[in-house]
Amino acid sequence: MAALKRITSLTRALTTMTSASRSCLQHAARKTYFTYVNEPSMPIPDREPCWLKTADEAIEQAELDSDQEVYVQGAAATPVELLRAMTDYGVRCDVRNVRLYHMHLEGAAPFAKPEHAKHFRSISLFIGGNVRPAVNAGTADCIPIFLHEIPRLFNQGYIKPDLSLIHVSPPDDKGYCSLGTSVDSVRSAVSHSKRIVALVNKHMPRTFGDAIIHVSHLDFAVEHHQPLPVHPVKAPSKAEQMIGKHIAENLVADGATLQLGIGSIPDAVLSLLGNHKDLGIHSEMFSDGVVDLVNKGCITNNQKKMHKGRIVGSFCVGSEKLYDFMHNNPFIEMLVVDYVNDPRIVAKQPKMTAINSCIEVDITGQICSDSIGTRMYSGFGGQLDFIMGAAMSEDQLGKPIIALQSITAKGHSKIQPVLTLGAGVVTNRAVVRYVVTEQGIASLFGKSLQQRAYELIKVAHPDHREALEKSAFERLKVMPAP
User: Fold this and answer.
1) C or N terminus of the chain, fewer CB within 10 Å?
2) Which among 58, 52, 75 has a CA at the least distance from the CA of 124?
């Protein structure tokens, strides 16, 4: 039965190909890189990819078939055109039950449309907005996992990609491409993938570190030159600006190593660090605000003991300014996420200051970041990786920080007596040190439940403090007190 299915699949694929395409397929089939080596930076002798004119041709030749596993590079490096071609091919050829593994993806996600559920099942390692409705409708799924452990899924065979769709810079004169803005788990995925299809884009920044992949490891390549997805910097609200002020003035020391995500709160913090000295960056991702601080001489990375004088990151999304800054810049090392986010590596950074956000926090300090009640929203990401790393910092000067506005857009308190029914705990109460809102800073380390409730109610919105005190008494059987 399996043999018949395979023959049917090949017949279907070959009928859509030109004679040149068939020749190219035969060439690629004779030389998969497993014959040689699976280290992406090591050239494979006498091998080059099959260069094609369109993404549609590339997907056809890659032999996408029912019940396969496909890995997709994400963030700013999402190969949007390959995803479009894959979806079209899968629907046209009635391919069924293809499982797509990916982190946050930019752009449209046509494979996640309800009408395509029989063809594709998205399985997010971190949920983005374009697949969130499908996850909550049950036509897609997710894997709760720490960011630093995602490469293990490939290295230990939990996921065995039949195909990887990636996005790289053009090869240089030595044949080396760059994974550019997204290294994260890509290196592990392609090292264990049977076939690799690459979108080659002159707009992809050439970055260094673990980003290098030799063109000989690509099975199929198609040039498609299009600007990367951008996230323009938005002006922070008054509340976000105040949160940034509290953190910058009270919790970030000169010589600190920073981890910040993307968004208005991290941008607000970065915008207020212009008088700081010798800051460093060791973060799974970073944004435009880093560029300004480098240009001001505030970020030097010269206090680091590891990767001294270098920004360390793993993926990013930002504006054209950020991508231009990253291009051919040896000041930046883009490294694999199982290294960057390893709490033991994070703990070695001087004055490690990890700044993360959340959806809600209860009065004992439990942090929910991945769901709104039972509705999945994002994922674990790197929050606990860095919160744990900062908490166990070797110099004992680390600061694990959770930052959030005190109320939602509808005026509901984000500090709750108990987490919403069904909400998951991403960061447990034992490792939270600081919770910051526009109302101030709650210091939680070494505090009892009674004291924690007191600290957190202080930074709640004034409109909700009385109700929180009553609820705290009902829960703890004692009034919150310092």
Assistant:
1) N
2) 75
Q: Which candidate in 284, 333, 438, 469 is catalytic? A: 284
Question: What are 314-336's pLDDT values in tens digits?
Answer: 999 999 999 999 999 999 999 99
**Residue 4 burial by Cβ neighbours in a 10 Å radius (0-12, 13-18, 19+):** exposed
What is the domain partition of the chain in residue ranges? 46-223, 238-476
Cα dihedral angle (355, 393, 368, 144), rounded to 10 degrees? 110
Which neighbouring-strand residues pair with 401?
355, 434
Helices (H), 327-396: 337-340, 343-346, 383-391
Q: Class assignment of domain 238-476?
A: alpha beta
Cβ atoms of residues 173 and 408 within 8 Å: no
Question: Would you say the CATH fold of 238-476 matches that of 46-223?
Answer: yes
CATH 3.40.1080.10 fits 46-223, yes or no: yes
The DSSP code sequence of 413-474 is BSEESSPPTTPPPSB-TTT--EEEETTEEEE-TT--HHHHHHHHHHTS-HHHHHHHHHHHHH
CA-based nearest residue to 423, from 473, 474, 470, 361: 361
Q: Which two tokens stand for residue 263?
A: 């968004």
Instruction: Report the Cα 410 to chain-centroid distance in Å.
Output: 28
Q: Is 284 a catalytic residue?
A: yes
> Would you list the DSSP string of 88-119?
HHHHHTT---EEEEESSB-S--GGGSGGGTTT
H/E element, 399: strand 399-403
In contact, 435 and 387? CB cutoff 8 Å: no
Q: Please tell me whether residue 177 adopts helix, strand or coil conformation.
A: strand
> How far is the C-alpha of 435 from the C-alpha of 361, rounded, in Å?
9
**How confident is the model over 127-163, as pLDDT tens digits?**
999 999 999 999 999 999 999 999 999 999 999 999 9
State pLDDT tens for residues 159-202: 999 999 999 999 999 999 999 999 999 999 999 999 999 999 99
Residues 6+ apart with CB under 8 A from 162: 65, 68, 69, 70, 193, 194, 195
d(CA 104, CA 130): 9
Q: Token pair of 29, please?
A: 């089939």
Which residue, among 124, 135, 128, has the nearest Cα to 375 in the 3D structure? 135
**C-alpha distances in Å from residue 207, one per residue of 74, 167, 188, 220, 308:** 16, 13, 17, 22, 17
Residues sharing a CB contact under 8 Å with residue 83, sequence separation 6 or more, in sequence order: 72, 105, 107, 108, 109, 110, 111, 165
